[in-house]
Design brief:
Chain B: Involved in beta-(1-->2)glucan export. Transmembrane domains (TMD) form a pore in the inner membrane and the ATP-binding domain (NBD) is responsible for energy generation. The complex is a heterodimer of chains A (about 400) and B (about 240). Helices cover about 55% and strands about 20% of the residues of chain A. Chain A has about 400 residues and is α+β, with helices and mostly antiparallel strands. Chain B is globular. Classes of the chains: A alpha+beta (about 400), B alpha/beta (about 240). Bound molecules: adenosine-5'-diphosphate and magnesium ion.
């Protein structure tokens, strides 16, 4: 008897009782579907984090507002813009490891070009921002010194904004767009950095303060919302971080023992830690899903054992008609394999559907790779072989004479 | 020209079952030969060891004493796998209770032994059709056992026994579950098969049936008590004069 015949006999036997066959493979279906889904969501989350890490740039420190005390009362972190342009200047001048630094303020607004219209993040900053983030231009130029100093009406677009406002053939450079009724000339379009990063328009910091924030009272003319700084070498992150902390504590006159009114963070390191955490959680979930696979395997073994008992006479007949022990073993092993493979295939389909649904409904990035599917299928084949072997072996060991005597 | 060995030869065959320390001797010291082309009835009361003997001739069981030779070869020297393959190719079983697979239709049941001869599906089905035709059951090829009467099921079972052109057909009380008319029809089928040269061994306890066979072996308490060939003896197909 060949493998193919084994599968034909198995399919025949399983088709006779479709509901039972389906219930038998349900554990495998659920196990495989969970593995595929967990993999898809986990690797999607990893991809997004990696993109964010890449988009921040290498060796970048981020300084954001911290605790603020007003009359002895601690206000929420970030409730006041405590960082200033002079802080940026001081960091650049006094800390040799810092190669570039820039302050930013940001908000969202509608950008308009002719008939087209797009809601995006407006980031007021200096050319240093692009240096810190290693962000190259696709076309055009960065802000000039005059534009930065004189609140020039210029804008650099992220690639998403450029795509939304301009037809594919159009050259955005030199075009006029409007943000909050202010006409601005497009001087540059940035390289793509990732879907979450490219939806942005940059204007000079002075332009943002003067033309968009106007006389907003809580804004000191010198304030920035956050500062990013690029440190020269890999090994100098921790050192530079404490130097910046010391410098700012001194400049902000933070009394000894009081919480800083700023925070210096290493976003890439934080995200890497997060990535590690995601990996751990994903592995944990896969382990849980594997338990379901195990339970599925046991359920298959159970049903197969019952089936061998029920079909003892069939086994006797097959032996009498010339079936060898290994033919009987192959027949039942094929049944277990077909159950697992079919369950695995349904599970993969279910897992793919589920992760795509999650992706659409929750807006998460999911990524289905062949590796995860292959792994899940390999798992189900292994389950079939492991849990199918004992019943198949038992069937093959039956004495044909005894088997023929059973009712 | 040397004499070729008999198709089947039993030499001082005994079979003792041992269960829970109790030994039951079902067959003791039985010797006889079966030549190609014979039809032999095996008679004896219930429990006299007929089925046990049949199982040994059919390579389903091995003797605990003596030896069974198939075409001169001691079957005890063959591996379990080899004996299985011989069952597929050289032995055709017919059982009292038909033993068709309930979940397969007639033609698939008939084709089953060929699965274990490594023959492809197309040829299996073609040969199964021919075999069904030979027993007059081709018109029921796609009926399931439960849709067939006892006599019809037994015809299908005979078609299955014949499909691999076996050296010998072994029938264990093939008419035992049938009414006398249907039994007579089945018997006529066996007789017709034997006329074409098919060797047949048939267990029965109906003397009327045994009388129609040229040779009858009587068993009692596991022992061979008579091996009769009623006169006139017809010329046997023998290899040497
Ligand atoms: N597997 C077995 N274990 C123990 N005793 C058995 C077994 N099979 C048959 N016997 C005994 O051997 C004797 C002959 O049985 P069997 O060959 O089936 O007789 P028959 O077919 O002539 O009715 C009976 O006494 C029966 O109880
Ligand atoms: Mg019997």
């Amino acid at each position: 008897m060949t493998m193919l015949q084994g599968f034909q006999i198995a399919l025949h036997a399983l088709r006779l009782n479709p509901l039972r066959s389906f219930l038998t493979m349900l554990g495998i279906v659920i196990g495989v579907a969970s593995i595929v889904t967990v993999f898809a969501i986990g690797s999607g989350a990893q991809l997004r984090l990696q993109e964010q890490i890449r988009s921040i740039g290498a060796n970048v420190l981020m300084i954001t507002p911290g605790a603020v005390y007003q009359g002895g009362v601690r206000l929420k972190d970030g409730s006041k813009l405590t960082m200033t342009e002079s802080d940026v200047q001081a960091i650049l001048e006094q800390i040799p490891e810092v190669q570039a630094a820039a302050g930013s303020i940001a908000g969202t607004a509608q950008v308009i070009h002719e008939g087209k219209n797009w809601n995006t993040t407006i980031n007021g900053t200096t050319t240093g921002h692009f240096m810190v983030r290693d962000w190259q231009l696709a076309t055009g130029r960065y802000f000039s010194g005059t534009e930065e100093a004189g609140a020039g009406k210029v804008v650099i677009l992220g690639s998403t904004v450029a795509r939304e406002l301009f037809a594919p053939g159009d050259d955005p450079i030199g075009a006029q767009i409007r943000i909050m009724k202010v006409p601005l000339e497009v001087v540059g379009v940035l390289d793509r950095k990732g879907p979450a990063q490219d939806d942005v328009a940059f204007v000079p910091l002075a332009t943002a303060k003067l033309r968009f924030l106007g006389s907003a009272s809580n804004i000191n003319r010198d304030s920035v919302a956050y500062i990013i700084a690029k440190v020269a070498g890999d090994g100098q992150m921790a050192g530079s971080r404490s130097e910046i902390e010391n410098l700012l504590r001194q400049r902000h006159r933070v009394p000894a023992g009081q919480e800083d009114d700023f925070k210096v963070q290493d976003p890439a390191a934080a995200m890497e830690a997060q990535q590690g955490a995601i990996r751990t959680v994903a592995l944990l979930l896969v382990a849980i899903a594997s338990v379901s696979l195990l339970v599925g395997g046991i359920s298959i073994m159970n049903v197969m054992i019952v089936s061998v008992t029920e079909r003892t006479r069939e086994i006797g007949i097959r032996r009498a008609l010339g079936g060898r022990m290994r033919d009987i073993r192959l027949q039942f092993l094929c049944e277990a394999l077909v159950l697992c493979l079919l369950g695995g295939a349904i599970g993969v389909a279910g897992g793919v559907t589920l992760s795509m649904t999650v992706a659409r409904m929750a807006g998460w990035v999911t990524s289905i790779d062949g590796q995860a599917i292959g792994l899940a299928l390999a798992f189900s084949i292994a389950t079939g072989l492991i849990f199918g072997f004992y019943p198949a072996h038992k069937a093959s060991k039956l004495s044909p004479i005894e088997a023929l005597k059973t009712e | 020209m040397t004499a070729s060995p008999p198709l089947i030869s039993l030499q001082s065959v005994g079979r003792t079952y041992r269960t829970d320390g109790v030994a039951v001797t079902a067959v003791r010291n039985v010797s006889f030969d079966i030549a190609q082309g014979e039809i032999v009835a095996v008679m004896g009361p219930s429990g006299s060891g007929k089925s046990t003997l049949m199982n040994m001739i059919g390579l389903l069981d091995l003797p605990s004493e003596g030896a069974v030779y198939l075409e001169g070869a001691d079957v005890a020297d063959l591996s379990e796998d080899r004996r299985s393959s011989l069952r597929a190719r050289s032995i055709g079983f017919v059982f009292q209770s038909y033993n068709l697979l309930a979940r397969h239709d007639a033609i698939e049941n008939v084709a089953l032994p060929l699965v274990y001869c490594g023959i492809g599906r197309r040829e299996r089905l073609a040969r199964a059709e021919a075999s069904l035709q030979a027993v007059g059951m081709l018109h029921r090829a796609h009926h399931f056992p439960r849709q067939l009467s006892g006599g019809e099921q037994q015809r299908v079972a005979i078609a299955r026994a014949l499909i691999a052109s076996p050296l010998i057909v072994l029938a264990d009380e093939p008419t035992g579950a049938l009414d006398s008319r249907t039994g007579a029809e089945i018997l006529a089928l066996f007789a017709a098969l034997n006329r074409t040269g098919q060797t047949i061994v048939m267990i029965t306890h109906d003397p009327g049936i045994a009388a129609q066979c040229r040779r009858t072996i009587h068993l009692h308490d596991g022992e061979l008590v008579a091996d009769e060939t009623p006169a006139p003896a017809l010329p046997k197909r023998s290899a040497a004069p």
